[in-house]
Specification:
Elements (H helix, E strand, L loop, with lengths): L6 E4 L2 E3 L2 E3 L4 E2 L2 E2 L4 E3 L2 E3 L5 E3 L7 H9 L9 E3 L5 H4 L2 H7 L4 E5 L2 H10 L4 E4 L4 E3 L4 E6 L9 E5 L4 E5 L18 H16 L3 H11 L6 E4 L9 H11 L5 E8 L5 H15 L4 E5 L5 H8 L2 E7 L9 H13 L5 E8 L5 H11 L3 E2 L4 E4 L4 H14 L1
Parallel strand pairs: 8-9, 9-10, 10-11, 15-16, 17-18, 17-19, 19-20, 20-21, 20-22
Antiparallel strand pairs: 1-2, 2-7, 3-6, 4-5, 7-8, 12-13, 13-14, 14-15
The chain binds MU-OXO-diiron (FEO).
MU-OXO-diiron binds next to α2.
């Protein structure tokens, strides 16, 4: 751990988190670029740590803190969020600094931390509360359901730094701590993917939080994952305003699985028909793309067509899993339809349609059900139907 040094992000404020280069799955979210667990150390009259890291990375956290001060000198720990990628090393910090006060939200943070880590030296705060840590003040802004009930961000007015935890973050492993040291297109894509997969159901809460932060002057957004925003703050805030709105774009996503290529042929015809209608469409054979990437495209695409052949009177398990995921994320203002091929029963297509409805997707086209292999004439009819009815 000798090379684990803190990174100074502002005078006497250090990044002391960890980089998880190899992470490829974050509770089901496919993280093709790894992630970081960001924690911050403020050296002031009361030495303050903002968040910890996933437990596997506690040694990195302690090494980085130790490169600045003895961890036993920590006076205050801000726990922005109970989820263990941020609170994972709280007990270890509390053992080293037993007098440190652990600040969390009331009542949800308090309940969650007590359930996970037992009775530590907690202090519960609510909206509008703040503390002085010496030259600096820390103001607490609870952001409930963004994305857990306990979630909170912290603002330091003297530094104009917003410690935003999960908000504005992205799963992106990097050795460069700031946005302007990384490729902007890549980090904005990863931030969108993060929003789509983690925050999509909480657009209203995101808008409430954005309003609460509206008047703050912000020099840095020190996130819980990925880069610290320094040069593109307006861009990420504007992106959040758009992502949290119910606006969608004239685009389509076609997702399917296939057994013997019939549903695949339908998917190709549907994708091409969307394009002929002037609606750009992306095509996903679900076997080859992780759900979290498909969802990133679905997020702001108005149209969603989902296809499955019938197997044992059901839809394909891959499509069932995909629809279960979509149902949880509740995309807004989406329109779609079901399609698929079958040998005899053909139940899958109605089942897909039911699940689309349950996910809040408005059905705008009758089910496309084709026995065995589609003929040229049937494909032309499908194409015509999409062009004329959508
Ligand atoms: Fe990054 Fe919700 O934890």
């Amino acid at each position: 751990m000798n090379n684990c040094k803190a990174v100074e992000i502002s005078k006497n404020i250090y990044w002391v988190g960890a980089v998880d280069w190899s992470l490829r799955n974050f509770h089901g979210y496919e993280t093709s670029r790894g992630s970081t667990y960001n924690a911050y150390l403020i050296i002031d009259e009361n030495i303050t740590l903002i968040d910890t890291v996933k437990i596997n990375f506690k040694d990195e956290l302690l090494a980085r803190i130790s490169s600045v001060i003895d961890p036993s000198k920590i006076d205050v720990v801000i726990s922005s969020h109970v989820e263990p990628d941020h609170s994972g090393a709280l007990k270890e910090i509390a053992a080293l600094a037993p007098n440190a006060e652990i600040i969390t939200t009331n009542p949800n943070g308090l309940k969650g931390l007590t359930a996970r880590y037992g009775n530590l030296n907690y202090k519960a705060v609510k909206a509008g509360d703040s503390i002085s840590i010496g030259e600096r003040t820390l103001q607490f802004v609870p952001t409930p359901m963004l994305h857990w009930p306990d979630s909170m961000v912290t603002y330091c007015p003297e530094e104009k730094i917003l410690f935003s935890n999960d908000a504005f973050g992205e799963h992106f492993a990097t050795a460069m701590r700031f946005d302007d040291e990384n490729d902007l297109e890549t980090i904005l894509f990863e931030a969108k993917k993060y929003y789509a997969n983690i925050l999509m159901p909480f657009g209203k809460q995101a808008q409430t939080a954005l309003k609460a932060l509206g008047d703050l002057e912000i020099k840095l957004i020190a996130t819980g994952h990925g880069v610290i925003w320094r040069s593109n703050i307006n861009q990420i805030i504007e992106a959040y305003k758009y992502w949290s709105s119910d606006e969608v774009e004239e685009c389509a996503v076609v997702v399917f699985d296939s057994m013997w290529h019939s549903t695949e042929i339908l998917a190709q015809t549907i994708t091409e028909a969307f394009a002929k209608r002037g609606i750009p469409a992306v095509y996903y054979d679900i076997k080859y793309t992780p759900l979290s990437d498909i969802v990133t495209d679905i997020f702001k695409s108005k149209y969603l067509a989902v296809g499955s052949p019938t197997i044992n009177n059901q839809m394909m398990p891959t499509i069932a899993s995909f629809l279960c995921y979509i149902k949880g994320l509740r995309p807004l203002n989406h329109k779609g339809f079901a399609f698929g091929s079958y040998g005899w029963g053909g139940q899958s297509i109605a089942l897909v349609e039911e699940e689309l409805k349950a996910a809040g997707v408005e059905i705008i086209l009758d089910k496309i059900r084709i026995a065995n292999l589609p003929t040229e004439k049937q494909l032309e009819e499908i194409s015509e139907k999409i062009i004329s009815q959508i």
